[in-house]
# Entry
Amino acid sequence: MRHIYSFSFILVFLTCHNTWSQFTLPKLNYSYEALEPSIDSLTMSIHYGKHHQTYVNNLNKAVVGIHADSSSLISLMLHVSKRSEAIRNNGGGHYNHSLFWEILSPKKNTKPSDELSKAIQENFVNLDSLKKMVNQAASTRFGSGWAWVIVTPDKKLAVCSTPNQDNPLMDISKMRGIPILAIDVWEHAYYLKYQNKRVDYLGAIWNVIDWEVISKKYAEALVDPLLPHLKRKL
Ligand code: MN
# Structure
């Protein structure tokens, strides 16, 4: 009899526990000071500890009641047109910043892998012209948003930008693909140190970009089963 009760309890638990665990702030792999002088410590602490944390908190509130099958952050992004504004803004905010922290690093002189270098040469001639294109996309983004390097569904590299906290995984995005590099151009990303000089921030950020991480992301994106599906609106 006791076994039957236990079994029923587990069933009820599984049925009711049909939501996901809470989204959390990812761990930073370096200290707030580590990216100085390109990104100052105060900006890092507020950007990561306050802005990103707020996106996470608001995302956790926004997903209450959504079925667990569609719970992953990626899945929320892919079907964002069917979700609330709060999920679009805070889910995008969580995804975008998580990628941003990951592709930054205090390591000096990291280099793209041979595979990524070859793709950069094929698509942009060289690394400098890629940086120029990203900076062009980032500096002409009016107001708040992001600049991206993505792997497109036909496995090419492309540069694009999105407004607010949108990203190229979203089904509402004009250009779609798997992001491997993200640059935050919201004023909160640079204003304390660079004030209105977004171009100076964009000049400095390349000192702290981790090409080893980006190379790994490139290799993973090429074989990601999600990639072909980004061709059409999901
Ligand atoms: Mn930001």
